[in-house]
Amino acid sequence: MKANLQTPSDVKKMMPLFKTTLSLLSIHILLTINSLAQKEPLTVTTSIRADELVEYDMTPQSIQTLINHCLELAGMGLFYQYGSADPNKGGLDCSGTIHHLLKDRMSLKNVPRQANYFYRWVWQSSEFHAVNSSQSQGFEWSKLKPGDLLFWSGTYDVKRDPPVTHVMIYLGTLKKDGRRVMFGASSGRRFENRPQHGVSVFDLHLPKPTSKSRFLGYGSIPGFKIESKISQVEPPSKGAN
Fold first, then answer.
1. How far apart are CA 150 and CA 218, in angstroms?
2. Distance between CA 112 and CA 125 in Å, rounded?
3. Where are the alpha helices (DSSP H) in 168-232?
4. Which SS3 state, helix, strand or coil, does residue 211 take?
5. What percentage of the chain reaches a pLDDT higher than 70?
6. Angle at the Cα of 100 (from 97 to 103), degrees rounded to 5?
7. E-strand stretches of 174-232
8. Residues 6+ apart with CB under 8 A from 204
9. pLDDT given at position 34
10. How far is CA 132 from CA 12, 24, 147, 148, in A?
11. Is CB count within 10 Å lower at the N or C end of the chain?
């Protein structure tokens, strides 16, 4: 009995089918990997209690409400998602976080959506305080208060004028060690020296001198005019709780 062997001619005829099958298999594998990546984004976030902040009890009620919303969002486990301003999608980007906070939760009108437009909004409708120093102390910081918007440029490459790329909200200083903390969305900024990925509380650090990014300054939220009950608050003495 002879074996049913395929001739080279038969194999040649089947090559297009093999190639098509391999292409479809490759596409399926790539789609599966992409789907898994989308289902499990990296999320590492941290929130704190409001009573851990030095200034909280001394701030006006409206700023306390703002901070409460910040800390609630930070505790929701939202990941960083570029282009999103909707927490129902599971993630937000930096300006999307601030937009959602001020527009949807604080009911402010004419809230911008993009970091550079937030920057212009503060410049034109409120009071902006520039910070040119590379140090996180000094007279340029004397007017910083909880609820202020914080601005950076150069956190990623973009064609904007001005090239403002990042915005967050200042929360205040921690009672336990006097560190300044802020709220927003990022992938890689730190809290207590641990990288965070998502909507979270972060330490307020200035970029290193060799970094492409630059801290520009801060300003109060337009349409949120409040006479603050506090001025600059000194960090708690050593050993304070």
1. 5
2. 12
3. none
4. coil
5. 76
6. 140
7. 180-191, 194-203, 214-219
8. 136, 150, 170, 179, 180, 181, 182
9. 56
10. 70, 56, 21, 17
11. N
Nearest to 130 by CA among 118, 143, 121: 143
* Averaged pLDDT of the chain: 84
Using 50, 70 and 90 to split pLDDT, how confident is the model at 231? very low
Query: What is the spatial order of strands in the sheet that 194-203 belongs to?
Result: 128-130, 214-219, 149-153, 164-173, 180-191, 194-203
Query: Looking at this protein, which amino acid is placed at residue 190?
Result: R
Partnered with residue 215 across adjacent β-strands are: 152
Mean pLDDT of 126-155: 92
- Whether residue 15 has pLDDT greater than 90: no
Nearest alpha-carbon partner for 165 in 207, 216, 212, 115: 115
The tokens of 58 are what? 């001394």
Structure tokens at 179: 């560190």
pLDDT higher than threshold 50 for residue 218 = yes
Residue 224 CB: number of other CB atoms within 10 A? 16
The winner for highest mean pLDDT among 8-22, 67-81, 149-163, 200-214 is 67-81
C-alpha to C-alpha distance for 76 and 121, rounded to whole angstroms: 28
pLDDT tier for residue 226 given thresholds of 50, 70 and 90: low
Closest alpha carbon to 93 in 78, 106, 104: 78
Report which residue type is found at 53.
L
Cβ atoms 185, 99 nearer than 8 A: no
- Other Cβ atoms less than 10 A from the Cβ of 10: the count is 9
This prediction has a pTM of 0.77
* Length of the chain, in residues: 241
pLDDT surpassing 50 at residue 234: no
